[in-house]
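Subject: Sanity check before I submit

Could someone independently write out the structure tokens for this chain? I want to compare against mine line by line before I put it in a report. The sequence has 387 residues.
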Amino acid sequence: MFHAAHGYERASGPEVKEPGTTPENRVATAVAPATSDLKSAARAAGKATGRDAYFDNAKYLAIVLVAVAHAWEPVMEGSRATRALYMVIYTFHMPAFIIISGYFSRSYRGKPHQLRRLLTGIALPYVVFEVAYSLFARYADDPSKPISLLDPFYLTWFLAALFVWRLTTPLWQTVRWPMSIALAICVLASLTPDIGADFNLARVLQFLPFFVLGLCLKPEHFQMLRRREVRLLAVPVIAGALLFAYWAAPRVNLSWFYRSRSVQERGWPWWSGLVVVLVLLACALVLSAAFLALVPARRAWFTMLGAGTICGYLLHGFAVRAGDYSGLFESQEWLGGPAGLVVLTLATAGMVTLMCTPPVRRALRFVTEPDMKWAFRQDPAERGPRR
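---
Independent answer below. Compare away.
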């Protein structure tokens, strides 16, 4: 089993659902035509669905980093370099995902069709996969493992958090100083030990500023990140972060990156712990900007996979957990060496890539993108005029 300090039961990173009816966030329904040229297929898919290639690229690259970092967790203790890479990835990959999810939530107003999408696209997958992961853990490792929809298990926490954040979107669009209020809530949550584990509320509140930031961003902000000078600056920023992480790797408690506990629960005084929280927030913002600056804006062979990252996120955990429960990572010590880490990285990246492909997405559509018109009343405002 993995230690709690690794945050394995509190993993990160899913698909960002795009609600609404704008071209950027229209859910794709067409499948790229069969062709040997992957770039042509991606280009055709983008034209058919109206999706923004930049954001699909960002989601695909981020979900690969999420899966790879999860695979590193059980074997990285013997490698200082891998631990440093893990720290850098965990600094920005969740904030970047949350910023994008906030950006695509700008049109949310709590209208009937948006509430239906919230229930079918976020709440339903949360319930299904929370039960699935709990049963998997019960029969593969811990027969006493309870099934509780109030206490997210493993990687389902993000769906619960996204449900809460998006439901509160109209409030953040109403108040005058949304970022200041969100930062204040984040600080108070990091200094409150008695929040409780329901819906992983401590983590929901401590990541809240990134979602609110996404709500406040406009297209021109992302265009600014794509400028040549910003992209060039992102390279030394990430390189400097890697060098610092290599120095800090043996000295840093990884629980800071998961934001699932308060400062006091880590044994720190509130005032010094608060400094760490604020510094980590600043680092997360800078590295998220650097990552988003380096994401290619053009269509590539993997662009079409950005529409299926919810599948890659929800499915890769079963493979990683299976390796944990079976003792694979403990029995194969060579995986902790340089060659083993390279093999593990390539295998995990390939696995999550396959999980994001259109066939897998179609197979899971009954859970991740169900219609379920039968479950909802028709809104009178959406009915067409009668003859």
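---
OP: Matches mine. For the report I'm noting this point. The longest helix spans residues 112-140.
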